[in-house]
Specification:
394 residues, three-stranded antiparallel β-sheet
């Protein structure tokens, strides 16, 4: 909105005495300025709305009155405070601020509209799941297959839309003058490898589905300790703040030999807004948490990161940057798979970890909650540095 208002004022003042007074509005043409504005706006809005949203959730009794799954399992010797009674659905704060700030500071191109639409759909899905948990007071919520089908259908829609989208990406093939043009799903970039891979539409659609659904669920699984999911999301978002800016700049993209995606620069504003909103939410979500994001926030944030990765041809980099999310998801998959395998083979199911997701494994080993969170932050920073190194190490 600010971008369009600034252009309107500049056009109106052209050739008049007011032209010199509003010339500073040209700053709104720069993605860097608008990204900084989005981050600051989102942070301030989160700080202002946070206490109001928390009080509102308490009045509605949208709290986690059922016992936390980790507490139900027992053995949490390092956990001092129970999470029972803490308001959930705090993702409403993050997503409201994220969408409002993005609309204020970004150009409303197709990539932004598609990303915000997908985030809203996943927010609605997460809200429904959180509300079902509150009604049941058991932590069960929506059936897993229902959530999975909604996520898959959304990812299919995104993939097909990008396949049919007339906007293409451009990539100069290294050591040649050939410029590869493609839609946004049929070409893959593999980390530490400088040549693009023509995967085709079918493989591209499958990769899009896996990226969006996998990222959404991985962040959801990570959301089990105060500040863990939102902090790791912040660090991962910084990586994609850089990547989207480079992908949207034709000169930088050509120099680094990454696909140039027209309009991807506006996703930088989205990432900046996500960082600001996430920092504001972390203010209230750090230990001991005053509010939880719930599935309302975790499903949407993970899905948003997945969509951004797909839009700039970097889903594999998301696997590296979101290494903590991958660890969390793999720990659940391995735990369930090993338990079922050993039970079928010996009649007694065995566990690979003390508890999954893996952050609870370390809690059961005696780590304090704050220790687990801070050490996972450190790992996430290392993964982020590794992801950014793929820009030059190829």
């Amino acid at each position: 909105m600010f971008y369009y208002l600034s252009h309107a004022l500049l056009d109106w003042s052209a050739g008049t005495v007011w032209e010199g007074y509003v010339s500073w509005l040209r700053l709104f043409r720069y993605i860097t300025f608008r990204s900084a504005g989005a981050a600051i706006t989102a942070l301030l809005l989160s700080w202002w709305l946070g206490p109001k949203v928390i009080a509102w959730l308490k009045r509605l009794k949208f709290g986690q009155e059922y016992a936390d799954k980790a507490e139900e399992a027992g053995g949490m010797v390092a956990r001092v405070l129970s999470k029972k009674g803490t308001p959930t659905m705090g993702g409403i704060l993050i997503i409201t601020v994220l969408n409002l700030t993005t609309l204020l500071w970004a150009q409303w191109n197709t990539l932004i509209q598609l990303t915000l639409l997908a985030v809203l759909v996943l927010t609605a899905l997460g809200f429904y799941d959180d509300y079902a948990k509150i009604l049941q007071q058991s932590g069960g919520g929506t059936k897993p297959y229902v959530k999975l089908w909604v996520q898959v259908l959304l990812a299919v829609f995104v993939g097909l839309y990008l396949w049919l989208l007339p906007v293409t990406s451009h990539l100069r093939i290294p050591e040649s003058k050939v410029v590869l043009e493609s839609n946004l799903v049929s070409v893959m970039m593999v980390p530490f490898y400088k040549y693009p891979i023509q995967a085709g539409v079918v493989v591209g659609l499958l990769l899009t589905i896996i990226t969006i659904v996998g990222s959404s669920n991985a962040v959801n699984l990570t959301d089990g300790l105060d500040g863990l999911a939102i902090g790791c999301t912040l660090i991962t978002s910084i990586v994609f703040l850089v990547l989207t800016y480079l992908a949207g700049n034709v000169i930088s993209a050509a120099y680094l030999q990454i696909p140039y995606v027209e309009g991807a620069g506006e996703l930088t504003v989205f990432c900046a807004a996500l960082i600001g909103a996430g920092m504001g939410f972390l203010w209230y979500n750090c230990h001991p948490a005053q509010v939880f994001m719930g599935d309302t926030g975790s499903l949407a944030l993970g899905g948003g990161l997945g969509i951004v990765a797909v839009l700039i041809h970097q889903p594999f980099v998301l696997v590296i940057a979101g290494g903590v999310f991958v660890m969390e998801a793999l720990s659940v998959i391995l735990q369930r798979g090993w338990f079922r395998y050993t039970k079928r083979r010996t009649g007694v199911g065995e566990r690979m970890f003390l508890m999954a997701p893996i952050h609870h494994h370390f809690e059961k080993k005696g780590w304090y909650e704050s220790q687990v969170v801070m050490r996972f932050y450190i790992l996430c920073v290392l993964f982020a540095v590794m992801a950014l190194s793929t820009l030059k190490i190829r």
